[in-house]
Design goal:
Number of helices of chain A: 9
Radius of gyration of chain B: 19 Å
Number of domains of chain B: 2
Strand order of the largest sheet of chain A: 2-1-5-4-3
CATH architecture of the largest domain in chain B: 3-Layer(aba) Sandwich
Shape of chain B: elongated
Strand order of the largest sheet of chain B: 2-1-3-4-5
CATH superfamily of one domain in chain A: Histidine kinase-like ATPase, C-terminal domain
Helix content of chain B: 25-40%
Oligomer: heterodimer
Distance between the termini of chain B: 19 Å
Largest sheet of chain B: 5 strands, parallel
CATH topology of the largest domain in chain B: Rossmann fold
Order of helices and strands of chain B: EHEHEHEHEHEEEEHEHHEE
CATH architecture of one domain in chain A: 2-Layer Sandwich
CATH superfamily of the largest domain in chain B: Response regulator
CATH class of the largest domain in chain B: Alpha Beta
Strand content of chain B: 15-25%
Structural class of chain A: alpha+beta
Shape of chain A: rod-shaped
Strand content of chain A: 15-25%
Radius of gyration of chain A: 48 Å
Amino acid sequence: MTSFLESSRTLFRSTPLRLALALVVLFAFVSLLSLGASYLVIRDSFNKSMEADLRQELAGFQAAASSSAVARLIAAEAAVTDPERRILSYVTADGKFSGNVRVSRSNEGFRLLSLPDEHELSEGPYLALTSNLYGGQLTVANSRSQIEDLGELFLNILFLSVLPTTVIALTAGLLISRRSGRRIDAIGEALKQLTAGDLSARVRTMVGREDDLSSIAGLVDSMAAAQQSSVNALRQVSADIAHDLKTPIQRVAVLLNKAREMPDLPEKLEPILNDAGQETASIVATFQSLLQISQIEGGSPKSRFQPVDLGVLAATFVEVYEPAAEETSHRIEAVLPNGGTAMISGEKGLLGQVLANLIENALRHTPAGASIKVAVRTQADKVCLEVSDTGPGVPANERQNVLRRLYRLETSRTTPGNGLGLSLVAAIVDMHDGEIELSDNKPGLRVAMTFEKDSSDG
Amino acid sequence: MMKILVVEDDKMTGNYVAEGLREEGHTVDLMTDGKDALLQASTTSYDILIVDRMLPGLDGVSVVKTMRGTKNQTPVLFLTSLGGVDDRIEGLNAGGDDYLVKPFAFGELSARVAALARRPRGTQDEIVLRAGDLEMDLVRRKVTRAGQPIDLLPREFALLEHLLRRKGRVQTRTMLLEAVWDISFDPQTNVVETHISRLRAKVDKPYEVELIKTVRGAGYRIEE
């Protein structure tokens, strides 16, 4: 019910539907106005001609020579006149009546005449003209049924033409606006995905005739394609650069090794060569991460995914980092689910990289004495992996930024690292269709990742 | 000792590898082109091939795939400047036996070549592993030295077992990480050193003869 309300609300917010509705309302209004105006004009001219008729008839009777002559004329005329159509009434000064319906006395001139209810004749009003003649009172009245019929006629026109036209126009407008709405939705959906970073999103071809919307869709698609290819080119270039630079780095490593193996190496030179070797290793690590991120974002095949137990993996990595944590006076512990497995479908090496990067980050950016917790929890169809620390944390407004490539917090400029750890983590989680969320551990940073539970083996 | 073919297009790296291996007493042929290497490998019998992933002519993975297609089972060590998990898996799927990411220290290469040359065959059936007066009973999961029982944690047991099975051969820390912890990348921690020193405290310290030796710049080894 709410979703229906919601969908009709969005439907009514759509521009095409509003335009269609406005047009229909305008059309109905103008039709009613012109119909009403014609009705009034026609009724008026009917009234006028009726009045003229009545005057003429009355004049005919007035031409009679005496009261009795009038009575005779009336009686003769009334005998052949249907009172439904015309009423003739002449009441002489002494109260003698001739005619088809007796009309009680009244003032001279035009008036509307209704017959009393008990009268079996048409109750419809008549237009009556009364005139005093030879002391008596002569009334000629013509049925207004023609004018009443006119109203009915116009109502019929209203029902038979304006209403169906309105309904048809409304339905057509609704259908057209729904089609436009669908097209606009498709464009909106594609733009939303593009904004969210899925550069492969497209509006695709639209069913039906081409219109301005489908040409906009075409433009959106070609814009997205251009963006995607330039981003791909950029990725390729950075991957190529990283790759090409690894050969000279390898040579530097070779040269450093050769120097270190010199038999007459001065003792002072050894620590310098070792430092140079370590610097080379960290350059390699940076390129390695860059290459890996671009490889993963470039769409690594998921066909190599296998069931991986996150609980076992978390325990292994906590164990691997325990000695390093001890050295820097950090506490590290694993909180694993009691019984049951935390299986997800994934690439074990990459998921291990996620754990390694997060634990390394925590060790690097928290002061001595801080604790690090690696927790794995299972829910109905999800597995949640959480790495939290009690360090300084990341300010709320920076939490999205730290997932970006090469981004580093101002406060951690001086600590070692290349700003790629978390973006690699984000890329790997994304590749596994997982969600990653950074939040406040009060105090500290909590990185929570949620994955679909692997269903392949129950 | 062994006949090794090195296929590497970067001359400096190729020469460094070839020279190092020759110094260890191996016979080394050095080639720079993939197609030439494939022809060479199919006409000459080698003990080990060391193949770079990126080669002019024919890339390393294709060379090894084609070679494996002709039932040539010579062990292959891939060298690569790529290093994503995918590259590693792709290399191993193509028929490579091991994988080394550039830049590498020669000690690492040497240890891996030695491991490839004598992959443990048949040793899987052994029930008791021995080194000097150290005994490891794989069935009862018991370790004794000079008749005295030694209590080991599961990871320490696995580490000692791995070293004992490869007696006399150097195992580098990345090889141990792979074998004992099942981690295929280097997490830059001293976990191997820590476990080795814990293991030494239990296995070596109370005794006169040191069994677990450190090989400088390479790794660890249990003497034969």
